[in-house]
Automatic annotation (TrEMBL):
Name of the encoding gene: LOC107427172
Pathway terms, separated by semicolons: Protein modification; protein glycosylation
EC number(s) stated in the UniProt entry for this protein: 2.4.1.101
Name of the featured protein: Alpha-1,3-mannosyl-glycoprotein 2-beta-N-acetylglucosaminyltransferase
Organism: Ziziphus jujuba (Chinese jujube)
Top-level class of the enzyme under EC nomenclature: transferase
Membrane topology, as annotated: Single-pass type II membrane protein
Amino acid sequence: MVKILFDFRVLLLLAAGAFIYIQMRLFATQSRYADRLAAAVESENSCTNQFRLLIDQISMQQGQIVALEEERNRLKEESGELKALVQDFERKGVLKQIDKIQVPVAAVVIMACNRADYLERTIKSVLKYQKSVASKYPLFVSQDGSNPDVKSKALSYDQLTYMQHLDFELVKTEHPGEIIAYYKIARHYKWALDELFYKHNFSRVIILEDDMEIAPDFFNYFEAAAALLDKDKSIMAVSSWNDNGQRQFVHDPYALYRSDFFPGLGWMLTRSIWDELSPKWPKAYWDDWLRLKKNNKGRQFIRPEVCRTYNFGEHGSSMGQFFKQYLEPIKLNDVQVDWKSMDLSYLMEGEYIKHFAKVVERAKPVYGTDFMLKVYNIDGDVRIKYNNQQDFERIAGMFGIFEEWKDGIPRTAYKGVVVFRYQTSRRVFLVGPDSLKQLGVEDA
């Protein structure tokens, strides 16, 4: 009996243990499913929130689209109103008052220092012809130093902008006997051109000096020349000056030439050229420096036969050098040439050498020591050959033209050829030893 009771208790304990084990497993399983269910509910809530956020964003974007569409319609309506208003202004001539924005052809700067009377004469000459084209050619006066009369004179004109260059740095000349003024002039030129190109952002600048008068077609000439500068990168600058432009040596106001020699005295250059020149600008004698082939890189210059500037400055830093012989007799053009209507394509690099070669080839060769008499008795153009610099100076001296050379180039020369008129419309070509070969012309 006791044994049966014992067996029953053991079985009961085993059954209880099994029940407890089963309950524990059920509890563990329920816990896992509860965790998964909670995670699923949380994920569902997150998805619901994201979906609602997406719906809100779409609704907001739709609102923006509607707003943009309304703005587009409003702008379209305003554009139509403005167009109608402009058309109404055009009918009433109001646009003639406001005009379209005029992009300047070039700034014009008058370089001045201490000659107030000269400056006034120059300003009056420029304003006489600049008034009608003032928007194309903004006028500046750049003064070097603090001369009160010059500053007062410049500021008395509302039609121009005054600039002042104050340089207190001590000048040290590189060679004994050099004139300090030339160092100051070089500094002034660099400062003024840097101001106009980089501060005022002009694409071209025309440089005048305070002892110049200009011709009636001065601005028309430079506007036509600006197109040449833009098209032909072999042109370094355009000048309004001819060194051999004395009355007895010129005839045709329509004639233009290319030259290997920098003329200066009223000239225009572009910003791209100045970008190249500014960093290496010389301490002095900038014009002679610019005439060297290593500095102008063999590029050429455009010059007229008849000058578009007249230099009346007998007194100045050059001490009146050459004034009576070469400057005072200069012929200032008095013909109103419409340059913009003329075809100047013959001045382009590839065309000009062919054009000039034909002209030189047609000229009659003159030989012998009595060539002056022979030239006088020939109606058409003539050419005279020189053998070297000394020979050129001798012949040039006989005619009375400039004898000076720079870096192996006579003044006004192209491929060594110097051309001028002699007594009539006859042209005289002084031809260098290699000129005909460079031009592709056979020596007769």
